[in-house]
Specification:
0% helix, 4-stranded antiparallel beta sheet, mainly beta
């Protein structure tokens, strides 16, 4: 079982910044990949950014150059630094982790954290 808990959401004006954190209950080095997803009101949940165990990073086109995903293995924490926020970034942001371990194989989700960007 892998537990993920997000924090750092909130309300900010357009152009502002927020940093999201995702604390994992296991060593994040044991996870095959981790990522951030977001779900705007009434819309589907989409990938924002991901990072593999090997360090490969992928961003959605809409956040390239503004968001940065990173991790601290010593703290078992994933981060998402969000700069130059836009109203269209408003969504619930979810942390995701994929475990390839035989006794915990699968995708795991945090409970989500709300990000609201006002114009």
């Amino acid at each position: 079982q892998v537990l993920l808990m997000e924090s750092g959401g909130g309300s900010v004006q357009a152009g502002g910044s927020l940093r999201l954190s995702c604390a994992a209950s296991v060593s994040i080095s044991s996870l095959g990949a981790m990522g951030w997803y977001r779900q705007p009101p009434g819309k589907q949940r989409d990938l924002v950014a991901s990072i593999t165990r090997g360090g490969s990073i992928n961003y959605a086109d809409s956040v390239k150059g503004r968001f940065t995903i990173s991790r601290d293995s010593a703290k078992n924490t994933l981060y998402l630094q969000m700069n130059s926020l836009k109203p269209e970034d408003t969504a619930v942001y979810y942390c995701n982790g994929w475990s390839p371990e035989p006794n915990s194989r699968g995708h795991y989700w945090g409970q989500g954290t709300q990000v609201t960007v006002s114009s």
